[in-house]
């Protein structure tokens, strides 16, 4: 019931924005597929930066409305053609989204492993929920400039799968080891 009430609050916020909700046909796919397909292009940065910018703007809009997306990942960024910027990106899948309810002190967030922030394993202070989307956006940027490679699969033992893989991914996020590998020149 609580989840249903959160959805109603989110719909109420969207309705107050006084805009029509529209659906566009998807010419390309989600960003996880598209970034992989565009590896061969000579000027990949011209395609990648606009997607990151549009995604960031979308998250900023959500935050300004008091909403946490809760599941930022490449599969939830849809890409469309755009003459000026090569691509236009839109966030999708709001199943884990929450209204930052100031009546509560903390919120339990969902999300997809390993994309979600390590602090989201437990309830997060309402004032800190926005940082979980920023953390996931950072992983999305890294994924993008690593040419669509799963950064955790690059850093972890390739023989690990399933729960063992996710446990190792959580471990390197929580210990800060992940941050020691953020030199982007390594991924080009």
TrEMBL record:
Residues covered by the Protein kinase domain: 1-188
GO MF terms, alphabetically ordered: ATP binding; protein kinase activity
PANTHER family noted in UniProt: CCR4-NOT TRANSCRIPTIONAL COMPLEX SUBUNIT CAF120-RELATED, MITOGEN-ACTIVATED PROTEIN KINASE KINASE KINASE 19
Protein name per UniProt: Protein kinase domain-containing protein
Organism, as annotated: Fusarium odoratissimum (strain NRRL 54006)
Record GO biological process: signal transduction
InterPro entries (alphabetical): Kinase-like_dom_sf, Plant_MAPKKK, Prot_kinase_dom, Ser/Thr_kinase_AS
């Amino acid at each position: 019931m609580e989840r249903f009430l959160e959805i109603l609050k989110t719909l109420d916020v969207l309705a107050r924005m006084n805009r029509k909700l529209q659906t566009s046909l998807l010419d390309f796919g989600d960003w996880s597929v598209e970034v992989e397909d565009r590896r061969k292009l000579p000027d990949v940065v011209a395609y990648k930066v606009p997607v990151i910018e549009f995604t960031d703007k979308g998250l900023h809009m959500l935050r300004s409305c008091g909403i946490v997306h809760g599941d930022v990942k490449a599969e939830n960024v849809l890409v469309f053609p755009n003459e000026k910027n090569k691509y236009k990106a839109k966030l999708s899948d709001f199943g884990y989204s929450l209204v930052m309810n100031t009546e509560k002190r903390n919120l339990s967030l969902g999300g997809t492993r390993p994309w979600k922030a390590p602090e989201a394993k437990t309830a997060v202070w309402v004032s800190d929920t926005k940082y979980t989307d920023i953390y996931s956006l950072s992983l999305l940027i890294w994924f993008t400039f690593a040419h669509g490679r799963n950064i955790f699969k690059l850093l972890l033992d390739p023989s690990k799968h399933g729960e063992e893989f996710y446990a190792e991914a959580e471990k390197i996020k929580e210990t800060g080891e992940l941050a020691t590998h953020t030199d982007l020149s390594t991924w080009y």
